Amino acid sequence: QAQFVESGGGSVQPGGSLRLSCTGHGFTLATYAVSWFRQAPGKEREGLSCFTSRDGTLDYADSVKGRFTFSEDSDKNTAYLQLTDLESEDTGIYYCAAAPLPTCGRNWYLLEKFYEYWGQGTQVTVSS
User: Fold this and answer.
1) How far apart are CA 126 and CA 83, in angstroms?
2) C-alpha angle 57/61/62, rounded to 5°?
3) What is the spatial distance between Cα 30 and Cα 61, in angstroms, rounded to a whole number?
4) 28, 47, 61, 77: least CB-packed within 10 angstroms?
5) Which helix (H) or strand (E) holds 55?
6) What is the pLDDT of residues 37-79, one digit of tens each?
7) Residues 4, 95: Cα–Cα separation, whole Å
């Protein structure tokens, strides 16, 4: 049974950094669109990034552009999200997800129904 297993969350002070990782088991990330989402208490889930290795598409949400960096290691079948210069507004549960699509569309973050595999979620807390 395929799984997407994530880790790396924690509690940091404003301005701190974390590195989240998601490892695919039973499926190959290189053939999927791989995204990160987050959900803060009382708010809807928010798309953060989308990457497809097929065409090199890499999109970030405006709220995290310049602070968060996506990467993918094909040998380890693992996706990463480097979080830097964290702010209190970044607090929430972070999820990785994979969709069997060849590219990230302009509105990929609105189409959660296409995501076949989801990580279990990891908590990121940013506070003084």
Assistant:
1) 11
2) 120
3) 21
4) 28
5) none
6) 999 999 999 999 999 999 999 999 999 999 999 999 999 999 9
7) 10
Confidence grade of residue 2 (pLDDT, cut at 50, 70, 90)? very high
| Total residue length of the chain | 128
Q: Please name the amino acid found at residue 76.
A: K
What is the rounded CA–CA span in Å between residue 123 and residue 65? 20
pLDDT for position 109: 87
Cα–Cα distance, 126 to 59 (Å, whole number): 24
Q: Residue 90 has which token pair? A: 């970044």
pLDDT of 77-124, one tens digit each?
999 999 999 999 999 999 999 999 889 988 888 888 999 999 999 999
Annotate 36-70 with b (16+ C-beta within 10 A) or e (fewer).
bbbeeeeeeeebbbbbbbeeeeebbbeebeeebbb
- 125: exposed, middle or buried (Cβ count in 10 Å: 0-12, 13-18, 19+): middle
